[in-house]
Automatic annotation (TrEMBL):
Gene3D superfamilies per record: Peptidoglycan recognition protein-like
Designated name of the protein: N-acetylmuramoyl-L-alanine amidase
Domain of life: Bacteria
SUPFAM superfamilies: N-acetylmuramoyl-L-alanine amidase-like
């Protein structure tokens, strides 16, 4: 990788939408397929497969106990000093994350791309913060259940628009203009930051509150990393043979880029 080229690998942008529903990083691998791919690739940071399956909090009593009662506590909603224009981002400690198996690798440079994913989970109508925390624990449980170090992506946004830190250390790194190596895009984890959007968007669009939070989060990340949103914001399918971030959602990313650019100009 050329560290001086912020926006490389344009040759990987697909000319047609891929049809495969198996998602490598930030999606669902069902049943034996997940185990087979995980066994083939191994647990290394560069080749882990992110698996946001339809997991529940069952067996994650530690995370449940650690998490605050989000819908009953106003303290967790206070504005944090996370940098200019930063949205409210709930840290891993707030949503009750488990201790990672391995310490995250932090690079002292910015990413080249911000990758948008969908979780390929149900389009729930529970928009509460509690559901957002439940989602974050479920994803971490699914990823670590495969023997991976921690949550694969850096940030997660629920259908209610609640933003959570994903992989531990991602928020602190972004505040300093650095990046944690995640496991959300096969072969491109060393220069990408990943955002999971709760839901499945092959035929419908994310709720407006999710889209608004995505715009705010990416605008902040672009400021922190000095990225051009017109080049940096890409769908997962740019890199891998996947339907992520959704056949309906992915074609609208040009509009997302314009919204983020407008947010940056108005800041």
């Amino acid at each position: 990788m050329n560290p001086n080229a912020k926006h490389r690998r344009t040759d990987l942008w697909p000319t047609e939408m891929p049809r495969r529903s198996v998602l490598l990083g930030g999606g669902v691998l069902l049943g034996s397929a997940a185990l087979g791919v995980a066994a083939a690739l191994g647990p290394s940071a560069e080749h882990e497969v992110a698996n946001a399956a339809n997991a529940t909090d069952a067996g994650d009593a530690t995370g449940m106990a650690q998490a605050a009662r989000p819908d009953e506590s106003r303290s967790s909603r206070k504005t944090r000093k996370q940098g200019k224009g930063a949205p409210l981002i709930h840290s891993t400690s707030e949503w009750g994350a488990r201790t990672p198996y391995r310490r995250a690798t932090v690079l002292s440079r910015a990413p080249e791309y911000i990758v948008v994913h969908h979780t390929c989970t149900p389009n729930v109508t529970d928009y509460s913060l509690r559901q957002g925390f439940r989602l974050a624990r479920s994803i971490q449980g699914a990823h670590m259940g495969q023997g991976w170090g921690d949550t694969g992506q850096h940030f997660t946004i629920s259908r209610g628009g609640h933003i959570m830190e994903g992989r531990k250390g991602s928020l602190a790194a972004a505040r300093r203009g650095r990046m944690v190596i995640g496991t959300h895009v096969a072969g491109a984890n060393g220069y990408t930051v990943g955002i999971e959007c709760e839901g499945t968007y092959n035929s419908v669009m994310p709720p407006r509150r999710l889209q608004d939070s995505l715009t705010e989060l990416i605008a902040w990340l672009c400021r922190q990393y000095d990225l051009d949103p017109m080049k940096a914001i890409v769908p997962h399918m740019k890199f891998n043979d996947t339907d992520c971030c959704g056949y309906a959602f992915a074609p609208t990313l040009p509009r997302l880029r314009k919204r983020v650019a407008a947010a940056l100009r108005s800041a």
